[in-house]
Design brief:
The structure holds two protein chains of two kinds. By secondary structure, chain A is an alpha+beta fold. Chain A is built from eight helices and seven strands. The two termini of chain A are about 35 Å apart. In chain B, α3 packs across α4, α8 crosses α10 and α9 packs across α10. The chains are: A alpha+beta, B mainly alpha.
């Protein structure tokens, strides 16, 4: 990567908009380029100062009241501001076209692999749905075994990635088996664990949501969701287990994956 | 008829629950686009009026960028109506624009000025308000409204690649002004000449 490219890309890095591959490219360049490294540090500091500062304005009370009054008026009687609020005011908003408010197709010159932020939300919801489905339909496992050396090969030929399967029995997370599932229209590996009566579905795929440096926590419909990226794979853990116990599970998985002998 | 009234009330409630939580975000963008409080408030009200009218056809995406896009249209139309010279945001070429922007050429700062110094909130707001369009808008949507690049692209009606280059330029300008500004400067900027903050 060259400096002029990095100068644009480092902002996407700061804003968490890059996928793992592009993020690595920028980081590699910045590590070897003092000028870009300095820029990244400065812009990151500026960004952090700005998001920490209370920059959002509070709408004044009289404006809020006006808007609320607007909503209390039947739609048929709602008219534009110049007749409704300020009859004497000059034609303030006269003659503007609504236009296409949000054109459906954002222009195609997407030169960079930028991933939508709300994609995570969609996938969170799908992951929770898949978790619920797996419990309801009596289809929790395609391969039912506590032997990680059986689970992992089962995915061979069913997926284009080999999901790591970790045995956490010693940490009282029992491996129940594995299942092929579909998230966002793509086949993913679902590895099923249990603690006490609580089932944990761990979904693993190559591209499933945005890449994050750290674990993202969410809670949907009473289910706890954790999402992180590791070794080029995306992981989504879902369970009705308490948040801190699911965090413990995530922590065990991530540290086991850092020791190759523990995962197969 | 009673059923219609109930349905209408239900629709209003739905709209209110979806749209009202974003009022501060909409108002904030309006303050930076309109540059005076009265016009900003009128634009916000017009925005909500239009949103209410079009709410039946709203199918997503997220409510916040949808509202901000409407607000932006309202503000741009008002500028267009007032004066074509003032038209602030529909540049055909960012590249041509950037050439007119000497601040894109970062000053040769001394090493201690290379990083970012601490600035208070009032100064940050003033510096943002002093940025030229369309860079001001890009910064506000990103750092204040907290939109993703995709959402900024939708609101501003530009490709994501343009969002990235605009933000890079906007931040470079802002950083230069930021480091040049005295922290003690507290006088309000042009966008904040009257009324409350920014």
């Amino acid at each position: 990567m060259k400096c002029d490219e990095s100068e644009v890309m480092l902002h996407a890095l700061i804003d968490g908009e890059l996928d793992a591959g592009h993020a690595r490219d920028v980081e590699t360049h910045v590590a070897g380029c003092a000028a870009c490294g300095e820029k990244l540090a400065a812009f990151r500091t500026m960004h952090e100062v700005m998001i920490a500062a209370p920059l959002i304005e509070t709408a004044p009370a009289h404006l809020r009241n006006r808007i609320e009054a607007l909503m209390a008026t039947p739609a048929s009687r709602v008219v534009s501001i110049r007749q409704f609020m300020q009859p004497t005011r000059r034609s303030f908003f006269g003659g503007f076209a609504m236009g296409s408010v949000l054109s459906a197709a954002v222009a195609a010159s997407l030169v960079l692999a930028v991933i939508r932020r709300d994609q995570d939300q969609t996938i969170s919801e799908e992951v929770v749905s898949a978790h619920i489905r797996s419990l309801q339909a009596g289809h929790l496992m395609d391969v039912e075994t506590s032997d990680r050396h059986t689970v992992k090969p089962w995915f061979n030929g069913r997926l284009d990635v080999a999901p790591p399967v970790v045995d956490l029995t010693a940490e009282s997370f029992t491996l129940l088996g594995g299942r092929l599932d579909y998230i966002d229209g793509e086949p993913v590996a679902a590895i099923v664990y249990q603690r006490r009566k609580h089932v944990i579905n761990l979904f693993v795929a190559q591209h499933l949501g945005r890449r994050h440096a750290r674990t993202i926590a969410d809670s949907i419909q009473g289910y706890n969701v954790r999402h992180w990226s590791q070794d080029g794979l995306d992981f989504w853990a879902v369970s009705d287990l308490a948040g801190d116990e699911l965090d413990e599970f995530v922590q065990k998985i991530t540290s086991a994956l850092q020791q190759p002998s523990r995962a197969s | 008829m009673a059923d219609d009234a109930v349905a209408e009330q239900e629709r209003m409630r739905t709209f209110q629950a979806a749209a009202l939580p974003h009022l501060d975000d909409v108002y904030t963008l309006a303050r930076y686009l309109m540059r005076n409080t009265q016009d900003a408030e009128d634009a916000v009200q017009e925005c909500y009026l239009r949103a209410l009218r079009h709410f039946d056809s709203y199918r997503g995406p997220a409510m916040k960028p949808w509202l901000l896009a409407i607000l932006r249209n309202v503000c741009n139309a008002e500028f267009a109506r007032r004066s074509k010279e003032e038209l602030p945001t529909d540049y055909s070429s960012d590249e041509a624009l950037a050439e007119e922007m000497p601040m894109w050429q970062e000053p040769q700062a001394s090493p201690e000025k290379m990083l970012v110094r601490q600035q208070d909130t009032a100064t940050i707001k003033r510096l943002v308000a002093e940025l030229p369009e369309p860079f001001r808008e890009a910064i506000v949507l990103r750092e204040m409204n907290n939109l993703s690049y995709q959402e900024i692209a939708q609101v501003a009606g530009i490709p994501v690649g343009t969002v990235m280059s605009r933000l890079a330029r906007a931040r470079a300008m802002l950083r230069a002004a930021w480091n040049a500004a005295e922290t003690t400067t507290t006088r309000p900027g042009p966008a904040v000449a009257s009324g409350t903050a920014p």
